[in-house]
Each structure stands twice: as structure tokens, then as C-alpha cells.
Design a protein that fits this description.
Elements: H1 6-22, E1 26-48, E2 54-65, E3 72-82, E4 85-94, E5 112-119, E6 122-130, H2 132-137, H3 153-159, E7 162-173, E8 176-183, E9 196-205, E10 208-218, E11 224-236, E12 239-250, H4 269-273, E13 288-300, E14 305-317, E15 326-338, E16 343-356, E17 367-378
Antiparallel strand pairs: 1-2, 1-3, 1-17, 3-4, 4-5, 5-6, 6-7, 7-8, 8-9, 9-10, 10-11, 11-12, 12-13, 13-14, 14-15, 15-16, 16-17
């Protein structure tokens, strides 16, 4: 019988462990979130005419996508390439929890789809990604960019939440988070058609967070949209105060391409009356300007209870072909109870009102009240 020494076994095991340590480490995480609610909303569309304009409105009750978040599932992965460099990727799909259909126009991974490298010099990623204004102003939005027209999704359409064909750079330097991105228009005849340039930064010091961002986009015909924003958040014990200002100026003929997640300056009745609260029907060559302000607070009442309240106001000029001004007010109050870190239920109430030239945006009415009893689960 062949004898094997104890020393040989130890050396063999040590060699195997060393070889294993030399193999690049990789991981893939499957994750998701489901947010859905029973909602009551006033002044919803009951009937439209041939032009798409609402002819009758009424209240509606039903199961809807959640007030806070868009439901999603995704995969997040990384591979250690050695020397402090890591390959990273994210694929994320959105869906409607009340029907199960895919969102973002039916895309397979409509929320995010990117790949890139992370190293000491920062992270650079390529693909469909969140816009720089979305990232930079996120800490200053009281509900972290809501998911329904009854909350503040209309603000996201002013800044653009996601961009296709984009290259994004991110780096943390001490208290600063720096971010810049470029989106390729991919239209023949010139690089500027459909392109987007953006840059921003966040500064964090203890309970204080500050941010500033700028962005310029061009549609396929090189009409421009310019965004600039600043924000601040400050924590005082269990209370956090949030606020931001967003400036948007769009050429009258600005018409985003399918890869640009913006609201057109003007559109058809069918586009806007099918989405209560959206504004800007008609056509014009005059630029439209929006000045959006949000002020809100979050109160951590107990370990399980969180209360939120916020007001958003938009003062807009040249909102229609006649060059008239308009305004929009959104306000909401939320009570959120956490069973655990992954599961919570909430009661959200919202009030939205439009005035002046924006009148009639809620199925021909000027305001809408919403009540949402919802549940979120993260996995």
C-alpha cells in the first residue's frame, strides 16, 4: 500500500488554497423591489373626443403602481480584475405590479443596462443610465423621485431621468462626489444632434449635503434644452430638511428622440390628457422656461414610523402658443410604517393644482386629490 505523509497533504492543501486565491473573484446579485397601492384619485379621464381632449372626468379607484418607487428586478455584478480594477455591470427591468407588463416602452432592461470599470481613478460606465441631474438632485427630493403623476414624476420629465447611449464618469474625492456624462445622439450628419452634456457634484459634511448640476441636451434637429439645479439637505436629530431648485429652458420646437427621457415642450392633446397633470399642448417657436422649487421634511418618529411632507411649485412661462404663463403646485403628506428593513406599508395623500395658462390639465379640471394605501417589499 502506498503511504501518503501528513506533510504532503498539508502542502497539497496549501497549494490549492493559493491557486484559488489567484482566481479573479466575481459575484452576481439578483435583486428587486415591488411597490403597489390601492388608489383613489379625483378628476381622472372618463371620456375623450377625437382630438384626445377630455370631455368628461370622474373619480377612480383601483390598484396602481406604487406612490414611491417603480417596481423592478435586476442583476448587479462585478469581477475583480486585479490591481484595484473591477469590472461592473447592472441590468434592471421595470414592470407594472398591477398587470405584470414591462414598462419603459416594453424594453427588456428599460430602467438600467450598463457595463464599465471601477478603479482608483473612479468609475466609468457605458449604456442606458440615470441622468446626472437625476443622481445629483436625488438626495434633496423628499421621496427620492416619486413614481406617479400624483407625486413628482413630472419634475423628472423636465430633467430627464434616463439616457440611452451614454458614457458616465463618477468619482468620490473626500467629501465630494463628482459626476459627468455624455450621451451620443447617433444621428448621421453631426455629433451634436441628439447629444447630451452634463456634470454635477455633491458635497457631504456630517448632517449637511449640498449639490449642483448643469445639463444641455439637443434634439435630433439640434433644438436645445438647458437644465441647472441646486439642492441642500440638513439633518437635525430625527428631522431632515430637503430642498432644491431646478431651472429648465426648452426651445419651442424641442422634440426629444426616443432615447431621450424628456417631456416635449409642446405636444398633442392625446399625449397630455392621457396623462393627467402633464401640461403644454399646442405648438410654438417660443422657448418655454420652468422654475421648479421643492421644500420638504422627513421625520423619523420611531424606529418603525417615518413621516414625510413636501410642497413643489413650478412657475412656467411661454407654456402655450400665445406665450402665456402658468403654474403648478404639488403637495403630499405620507405616513410610512416599516415591518422590517425590506417591507413597509404607507398611506400617502396628494394634492395637485394647475393655474393660469396650464388650467384644465386634470381631465379638463384644475386640480386632483389622491389617496394611496400601498406596500413595498425589497428582495
Amino acid at each position: 500500500m502506498k503511504k501518503v505523509s501528513t506533510l504532503g497533504i498539508v502542502l497539497t492543501m496549501a497549494g490549492a488554497a493559493q491557486a484559488q486565491s489567484l482566481i479573479p473573484q466575481s459575484s452576481v446579485q439578483l435583486y428587486g423591489l415591488i411597490d403597489t397601492a390601492i388608489a383613489f384619485q379625483t378628476h381622472q379621464i372618463a371620456a375623450t373626443n377625437a382630438a384626445g381632449r377630455a370631455t368628461r372626468s370622474g373619480s377612480a379607484v383601483g390598484i396602481v403602481p406604487g406612490f414611491f418607487n417603480g417596481s423592478r428586478w435586476g442583476m448587479l455584478g462585478s469581477e475583480d480584475l486585479g490591481g484595484g480594477t473591477t469590472a461592473v455591470f447592472r441590468l434592471e427591468a421595470g414592470f407594472s405590479p398591477d398587470t405584470g407588463v414591462s414598462l419603459q416602452g416594453g424594453r427588456l432592461f428599460g430602467r438600467q443596462a450598463w457595463v464599465g470599470l471601477n478603479a482608483d481613478y473612479g468609475q466609468i460606465t457605458f449604456g442606458r443610465q440615470y441622468s446626472v441631474p437625476f443622481d445629483i438632485l436625488l438626495p434633496f427630493d423628499t421621496i427620492g423621485w416619486g413614481n406617479t403623476g400624483a407625486s413628482d414624476v413630472w419634475v423628472q420629465l423636465l430633467e430627464g431621468s434616463r439616457m440611452d447611449n451614454s458614457v458616465k464618469y463618477q468619482q468620490n474625492v473626500g467629501p465630494l462626489k463628482i459626476e459627468a456624462a455624455y450621451t451620443f445622439g447617433e444621428f448621421a450628419g453631426g455629433a451634436s444632434a441628439g447629444a447630451i452634456y452634463s456634470a454635477g457634484l455633491n458635497y457631504t459634511s456630517g448632517p449637511l449635503v449640498l449639490g449642483a448640476v448643469g445639463q444641455q441636451a439637443r434634439d435630433p434637429n439640434r433644438n436645445k434644452q438647458t437644465n441647472a439645479g441646486v439642492g441642500a439637505a440638513y439633518a437635525i436629530g430625527p428631522v431632515t430638511l430637503h430642498g432644491y431648485y431646478l431651472y429648465t429652458r426648452r426651445d419651442g420646437a424641442f422634440a426629444p428622440s426616443a432615447s431621450q427621457d424628456f417631456l416635449p415642450t409642446y405636444g398633442t392633446n392625446a399625449q397630455y390628457y392621457a396623462n393627467p397633470g402633464m401640461t403644454g399642448t399646442g405648438s410654438s417657436t417660443a422657448p418655454r422656461t420652468d422654475h421648479v422649487f421643492q421644500f420638504g421634511t422627513t421625520y423619523q418618529a420611531t424606529q418603525a414610523w417615518v413621516l414625510k411632507a413636501a410642497v413643489i411649485y413650478d412657475a412656467a412661462s411661454d407654456v402655450n402658443p400665445a406665450g402665456q404663463s402658468g403654474n403648478k403646485l404639488s403637495a403630499f403628506l405620507i405616513g410610512d410604517y416599516f415591518f422590517s428593513k425590506r417591507t413597509d406599508i404607507y398611506l400617502a395623500t396628494s394634492y395637485n393644482r394647475v393655474g393660469s395658462a396650464l388650467s384644465g390639465a386634470y381631465a379638463g379640471r384644475n386640480d386632483s386629490i389622491g389617496v394611496f394605501l400601498g406596500m413595498r417589499h425589497r428582495f
